Amino acid sequence: MEMVVTDLAVARGGLVVLEGVGFTLRPGQALVLRGPNGIGKTTLLRTLAGLQPPVAGRASVPAESLAYSSHADGLKATLTAAENLVFWASVYGTGTVEAALAGMNLLSLRDRRAANLSAGQKRRLGLARLLVTGRPIWVLDEPTVSLDTASVALFAGVVRAHLAAGGAALIATHIDLGLDEAEILDLSPFRAAPGAFAHGPDRGFAEAFG
Amino acid sequence: MEMVVTDLAVARGGLVVLEGVGFTLRPGQALVLRGPNGIGKTTLLRTLAGLQPPVAGRASVPAESLAYSSHADGLKATLTAAENLVFWASVYGTGTVEAALAGMNLLSLRDRRAANLSAGQKRRLGLARLLVTGRPIWVLDEPTVSLDTASVALFAGVVRAHLAAGGAALIATHIDLGLDEAEILDLSPFRAAPGAFAHGPDRGFAEAFG
Amino acid sequence: MMPDLGKYAFAVLASYGATVVLLAALVALSFWQRARAKRLLDEVEARAGKTDG
Amino acid sequence: MSIWEYANPKKFMQTSAWLLPWAVGLTVLCLGIGLIWGFFFTPDDYKQGATVKIIYIHVPAAMMAINVWVMMLVTSLIWIVRRHHVSALAAKAAAPIGLTFTLIALVTGAFWGQPMWGTWWAWDPRLTSFLVLCLFYLGYIALWQAVENPDTAADLTGVLCVVGSVFAMLSRYAVNFWNQGLHQGASLSMDAKENVSDVFWLPLLICIAGFVLLFIALVLMRTRTEIRTRRAQALMARERLA
Amino acid sequence: MIALLIRDLRLAFRTGGGFGLGLAFFLLVAVLVPLGVGPEGGTLGKIAPGILWVGALLACLLSLDRIFALDFEDGSLDLLATSPLPMEGAVAVKSLAHWLVTGLPLTLAAPALGILLNLPPAGYGWLVLSLALGTPALSVIGTFGAALTVGLKRGGLLLSLLVLPLYVPTLIFGAEVVKRGAAGMEVATPLALLAAITAGAAGLLPFASAAAIRVNLR
Amino acid sequence: MIALLIRDLRLAFRTGGGFGLGLAFFLLVAVLVPLGVGPEGGTLGKIAPGILWVGALLACLLSLDRIFALDFEDGSLDLLATSPLPMEGAVAVKSLAHWLVTGLPLTLAAPALGILLNLPPAGYGWLVLSLALGTPALSVIGTFGAALTVGLKRGGLLLSLLVLPLYVPTLIFGAEVVKRGAAGMEVATPLALLAAITAGAAGLLPFASAAAIRVNLR
Ligand code: HEM
Ligand SMILES: Nc1ncnc2c1ncn2[C@@H]1O[C@H](COP(=O)(O)OP(=O)(O)OP(=O)(O)O)[C@@H](O)[C@H]1O
Ligand SMILES: Nc1ncnc2c1ncn2[C@@H]1O[C@H](COP(=O)(O)OP(=O)(O)OP(=O)(O)O)[C@@H](O)[C@H]1O
Ligand SMILES: [Mg+2]
Ligand SMILES: [Mg+2]
User: Fold this and answer.
1) What is the number of alpha carbons within 13 Å of residue B123 lying toward its C-beta?
2) How far is the CA of A83 from the centre of ligand 3 (A)?
3) E193 and chain D: CB distance < 8 Å anywhere?
4) ipTM score
5) What superfamily in CATH does domain B3-65+136-208 come from?
6) Domain extent for D180
């Protein structure tokens, strides 16, 4: 259940943005990705989630162990909070959603349609989805956007419980989550040099023109 | 150029969420709205922007003086950063967009399509729109979502310059903007009591059965 | 009793039949909706009465 | 006391509770007399034979199909101008009734057309404009159902009803222009005798009254349902807040 | 206002949803109908005016939901509503942009498709004229339907249901002009009525559309 | 997989985009064509099989972009792609849901519309049979088109353009079945071809669609 990333290079829009990224994520560990806007955090996380291929290097992610959460929440506006979760619970073949609703303090909103939630409430629901995946490795892209202080603390508690249960979490964020035990990985040193292009997805092209 | 709000009640989804809100926003002043998720910040700001009618009370906003920025950025993915701004500049009848691009540190991205910007870069572009409106009163809903620390500081500087030039700003946010001179208005005390219903949009129906 | 409708029996009876079916459906729908609304309102009012008198 | 008092939901509930049994009773009486008289005790027409008995449903349904839309137009306008909730809800309650009447007119017309014109359906102007009316009803009902917030829905459907009325009239005219039809002219015009003979005339009138009363009874009942639902929604919203 | 027009046109070109695609759909209808109906020239020639008009109408219809939906989703519509542009003006400009991108190219391309459908030679002029007079009404009415359904998240179908009955008079008069023209009969009456509908719709409907949008943004 | 099917069906009902509206559009085409073409029963009866098939095809087409677009926009598609569901299965389920919501009700309602278009009586059975056999192919092929265009932000038109040529064989054979059936000729050959297209498309296209989606999410 270890995620090992070695010398990874990732590209966005045909352009290498990060290269040489390497780290290991062990059970019980939380790793916070930091870096200025546009450095490539989202790109890196999407690559790890298997949504796009890496340009170079390897990311070994144990099969069927990863839950990804993106900038968007993937909520269906016309379904209620509970129905949204039940769907994901059955896709992942896990059981009940009560624990997840309780965990993100959503019990009172369970029969409210997602369309009628405020920005922060939607986000809480999106995060509750992680709890029903039953997956050990969480890969989260700015999970606390729009959350108030109380909810951020609640979320930190949820992550801590997940780590204590042997899970791991990789979190890209700009704000402080109050997860003091988390390691921090600053991506700035891995910003791809302009020359990285020569090894990028257009390598064949670069060579073709010398 | 003063915005005076007295005893305002606002509703969302046919339900009064805040009542008795009152404050005055004078030139040169910044007011930060705080409150937990779901208290009704977005609803209040939309009401002030004139997008929905208030349930009770008055908001006197000087005509043609307000610029609103919502959770969403209103960017067109296929237009470049500069084209997006030029459009708003001509809608508001102001001149050039160079100052705005420079102000939000977007000069290097000016010919990049909005679709190819990262989450934080998009947000910066969305905020640059405020600079081309030429409006004195800014009404901003969580403007710093997805911004990194440097960009938050940049934005705080922009707001400070706006205030110094006689503008005013009303900002709903969960995080600290580093605007120490701003006053803070906590909305929690204004949460509507269930009885507020009797003055709400459903008054007729409350009476219907006595 | 039954009038002799001759060769037009089908047209006439089908018209009356279809009308009865359509009207019955509308009336049934109305009663069903009425019952549902009443039940819902009674429930909600009972709850409201408990919480804030 | 002004007439607008009745636009208060409470007042409306009281008045309609009193009115409804009368409306139901009169409906049963009129429809019973009219239909039984028409079906059993009128002679066959010399040209149309027994099919003339369809007239007792077809004509009242056709007339009411149009009149219900007119009523919806009026109540929509009242909602738009004076914002009385009951008015908007009455329009919402009336739409399915209008749709049913339109369908009855279409179906009985089709059954009538088969022996008379030798076809179930012809693109006759009057028939066509009824089909268009049917579409208007469907769109109106679908829009009510699509919008969640009841006031928003009332506003949008109100605007649709007003604009739709104008276009419904235009289509009526267009369709007349497009095709000269097979259909009967108006028979209830000034000089009734010229069109429908006396024997059919009186039971037909009673049936028309019966359909009007049926509409009144149904619309009262359905408006009461809508008011109850609306009140329940309001209370549930209040509950959520608490 | 001009800025909005330019932006909308530019967006239509950039996203490839412009001229090319409206036309392509029209072309495809003109191709599919003979495929479905069968190739006899006589039948085709008779139904050509009607099919061409129905095709133009459907091509219009398909692109209606994009008039406001994209602006609503990305929040621009909120921002436009709080901008100094009057909503009525914005709505009118959006109708105009839709017509420039859909109705106008359809009108220009119609004669070519007339050939595919064996339209009688006398009909070509009237086809172009009737489309030129009638398609603006389609855009304006469609904008109204789009305004009613903006934010309802249900694709084009509810919109189609609402808009199609409103299209009936335009369709009838439009097709009638071509049919009569092709048969050499007089066309002044339907032509005048078509023009009247377009003028009336363009003059009045933007107000209704603007009201609907304001309600939907609430 | 069943969870996905249930969710998609539930969404279709909740958003009102279900049975009612697909049908409504089909009805509208059946109404508009006579309005455009003119009311003579003979002409209408002759073109009825073709028009009904073209109408079913367009009704299908209009709802195609909703198969993936909504899931893409709100991020669910990313999440589905990283879930344990194989993408091929998810795509097949989505085609099935689309057919249940569109193709099936169209098939059931077609005879009523046959009346409006003066379809000859012998054609009704064949109309239903051909639609029942052919509409699944429309859904599967349409899903492929939707997979190709997901995320391209350009409304239904590009999608229509891509998909319509793929629909041509289904349309031709389907309409041919009805036409021959209505005329009392033998229909075995087009019917067999129609069934073959559906079987082939349903068996193979989901793989292509899944591949297209994976590429589009990259
Ligand atoms: C589906 C088809 C039909 C529709 C939608 C339809 C519709 C109508 C309408 C709108 C009226 C006018 C009521 C009024 O304004 O007073 C009417 C009246 C009438 N219809 Fe039909 N009709 C249909 C078929 C037929 C057929 C096939 C016949 C008989 C051959 C027929 C016979 C009459 C007669 C005798 C009247 C009374 C004339 C009058 O009071 O105006 N209708 N129908
Ligand atoms: N389609 C594209 N074509 C070219 N460049 C792109 C494209 N999409 C994104 N980029 C660029 O790739 C870089 C990485 O973007 P990414 O979204 O991964 O950044 P991020 O670290 O997540 O930033 P943020 O904190 O703002 O979310 C950015 O500089 C962005 O401008
Ligand atoms: N359509 C709706 N129907 C009913 N209630 C709604 C609807 N939309 C929002 N609400 C509720 O109204 C309240 C106010 O929402 P609003 O978006 O204004 O909150 P907010 O203060 O902006 O929250 P956040 O910080 O999470 O953005 C919330 O409790 C929300 O759940
Ligand atoms: Mg990012
Ligand atoms: Mg908010």
Assistant:
1) 20
2) 19
3) yes
4) 0.83
5) P-loop containing nucleotide triphosphate hydrolases (3.40.50.300)
6) 18-241
